[in-house]
Design brief:
Strand content: 15-25%
Largest sheet: 5 strands, mixed
CATH class of the largest domain: Alpha Beta
Oligomer: single chain
CATH topology of the largest domain: Alpha-Beta Plaits
Helix content: 10-25%
Shape: globular
């Protein structure tokens, strides 16, 4: 006879809630967000500041939806589905809000490396020239102060993804934070020192979560500057990191038989998308071929 007690929690089904989203009844596990119920990042709701491994900060407000009975539009990335909730992911009000977010950001931030923005601009009728040629921008000089990655904060939308990945949610290095206020707010190290003078351990987990290309590996930055970076020619191969015995999962991005970038899947049960300096940048030794 099995003497191991069976917990009631192990046998009872997880509680669910049913809501109406765009006219259809949707039943999901309690605690599921509206965004997740609509397919996550691959669904129809646009997202900028949302990441698969970081707790939502509700920073960009691009994913807002209408919830019947609510005065304000709700951020789909963090608002849980509630029983009998009625949600509209598209309406005149929702489209207007998303169009304004894209226009505000598009007029002040370089979103050229941000996925899906061009399609969203067309979908929501965005006018990037609405605020004129004199609209203030957050353009800043590119920071190149180490050999591993480059910081281009003219592309930063202050999504807090890098801050949270470096801080309490993953790395616990607490190297960066948001400095300044209002339009002068920006990501900065303590006293704005260079990365080599900071506590940065060069894990690159901030790069992994950055949605706009404000943080990129030096190899990618140099290839983009030379016009040779071509994701259509890249093949991604999954493997296991060999630098230690943890068994972190790697994705090798290979172009022209050369590793150009290393990432880790956000859904990997070991890494959750995070790596150390060896896993993310240690691939360079593989490129040292006989002359």
């Amino acid at each position: 006879m099995n003497d191991v007690p069976v917990s009631i929690r192990d046998t009872d089904p997880l509680p669910t809630v049913t809501a109406t989203i765009d006219g259809a009844d949707v039943t999901v596990a309690a605690g599921t967000t509206i965004l997740q119920a609509c397919g996550g990042r691959d669904g129809e709701i646009p997202t900028l500041c949302y990441g698969d491994t970081i707790t939502p900060k509700n920073a960009c407000r691009l994913c807002v939806v209408e919830v019947e009975g609510s005065r304000a539009l709700a951020p789909a990335c963090s608002r849980p589905v509630e029983a009998d909730m009625v949600v509209r992911t598209r309406s005149e009000r929702v489209d207007h809000a998303r169009r304004m977010v894209l226009e505000f950001l598009g007029s002040s931030v370089d979103l050229s490396l941000t996925a899906n923005v061009t399609a969203w601009n067309a979908q929501y009728g965005v006018d990037l020239d609405r605020y004129g040629a004199d609209a203030a921008t957050v353009a800043r000089p590119v920071k190149v102060d180490n050999d591993l990655y480059v910081r281009d904060y003219s592309k930063c939308i202050l999504c807090y993804q890098c801050v949270d990945a470096c801080g309490e949610q993953w790395q616990h290095s607490f190297v960066i934070e948001i400095a300044g206020r209002g339009f002068d707010a920006h990501v900065s190290t303590e006293h704005d020192v260079t990365l080599p003078d900071s506590a940065c351990v060069y894990c690159g987990n901030c790069i992994q979560v950055c949605p706009t290309g404000a943080l990129v590996p030096a190899v990618e930055f140099d290839m983009r500057a030379a016009g040779t970076w071509d994701e259509d020619r890249q093949v991604v191969t999954e493997t296991i990191c060999g630098f230690c015995g943890v068994g972190c999962g790697l994705e090798l991005h290979v172009q022209d038989n050369t590793i150009v970038k290393v990432t880790s899947p956000p859904d990997n049960p070991i890494t959750h998308g995070n790596l150390c300096i060896k896993g993310r940048f240690g691939f360079q030794h593989a490129q040292n071929r006989p002359g």
